[in-house]
Amino acid sequence: MKIYLPLFYSEKIKRPGKKYFLNNIIGEDFIILFLSFACFSSHPVLNSIGLFLLQIAFWCIYELGYIENDVIGEKFEDKAVLSDNYKSHEYSFSFWQPWLWSFGLSILGIILLSKNHNIDNTFFNFQLFNEYNDNLLWVIKELIFWILFLFALRGIFNLYNHINKQSRVWFYLLLQAFRYCGFLVIFTTNTVGLMLLVSNILTRSIQYILYRYLGGKNESWPMEFPRYFFCLLIYILLIGIIAANERDLSLIVNFQFLLISIFCFARGSKNFYKVFTQFLPVSKDGSSQVI
User: Fold this and answer.
1) Given Cys at both, which of 4, 26, 153, 241 links 97, Cβ 3.0 to 4.6 Å?
2) Per residue in 157-173, pLDDT tens?
3) DSSP string of 242-282?
4) Same domain, 153 and 20
């Protein structure tokens, strides 16, 4: 593997046979980002394409953390969790290749977003510039912020990989915040979308903390953990608390909130069914066990 291809490592080596790109990158992360940032925008199509390009740019750097994690695990851990494909697909590409991919995709994504962005001239205060120059300045500014964010992401993942597993639970929360809220460097969202990002970060972190405290092995991963049930529950609680505080019922009575709820139900349908069917009076279930 001498040439870097975005997400090949994640798809074929880190998570082989799980259709990681379709099920997780597109079917989960992109939909969450779309529901948070793009679905309510005035130009959802171009914003969605720009968001997708930035997401792949993000994953080019995030994936470096996956590779580094496996290399460090093989070198220092007694029982490293490595897939069967790890040895058969050893990489030999230079680490500048993912950065080149990421930089190119970032430029394309930000240029697309600039087509529908209302440029704020007060930031530069250059009244002599025409619309083209305003867009160019906005692209350069946002690209600088985005690249700095990617460097910070790489630094956090590197720190995560080089500390012991007991301490990783705390840095995992930061990685999830970068994975979802990091796009706030470029985009803005509303309260409804922001609470979806926060709820997802918290739920994924809870699942990972359980995994670490249950042993940190493949068989320790809490497969039956109803993640989307908890995500929707936390989401509704957060939105409900904010709506009550602001006396704003429109936060929970809107199309975006409905789409988010439908997405959580669709992704976690089996878990929702299991949770709901377990609602029994204690007189009929005296075991008090969580199955």
Assistant:
1) 4
2) 999 999 988 888 889 99
3) HHHHHT-GGGTSSHHHHHHHHHHHHHTHHHHHHHHHT---T
4) yes
